[in-house]
Amino acid sequence: MRDDERLPQPVTTDIDLVTLLHALGDPVRMTLLLSYADGAEHSCDPRGLGLEHLHKSTVSHHMRVLREAGVTTTRVAGRNRFVSLRRSDLDTRFPGLLDALLAAATAPAR
Question: Quick check: helix, strand or coil at residue 79?
Fold first, then answer.
């Protein structure tokens, strides 16, 4: 992917733990993380992400927070945007953190 096809995001070494955890501290953004964990690219359509109850601008805001924190990358294709998880970058920067977050998010409540 060329850099001009990607929206601005921090380089791997600049991903900050506090910023990352703050971004994932919102239930909507955790829902997005779970959607993106499949490794595929996802469109920004709220219906495809299980967020049809939210306004499109609200979903876009949450996507921007995740991208700016370094959690996701967004590819631009014309008027469309496709978001994917920066799994490799996050595993490089904070080994095991993403697996722990995903496991905690899918574990049944006690």
Answer: coil
* Per-residue pLDDT reduced to its tens digit, 21-77: 999 999 999 999 999 999 999 998 888 888 999 999 999 999 999 999 999 999 999
- Return d(Cα 38, Cα 85) in angstroms, integer: 9
Q: Provide the CB-side half-sphere exposure for 81 (13 A, CA).
A: 16
Question: CA–CA distance from 32 to each of 46, 101, 104 (Å)?
Answer: 10, 13, 15
Q: Around Cβ 97, how many Cβ atoms within 10 Å?
A: 15
User: Distances in Å between the alpha carbon of 36 and those of 4, 49, 87, 110?
Assistant: 22, 9, 9, 25
Beta carbons within 10 angstroms of residue 70's beta carbon: 22
Q: What is the pTM of this model?
A: 0.90
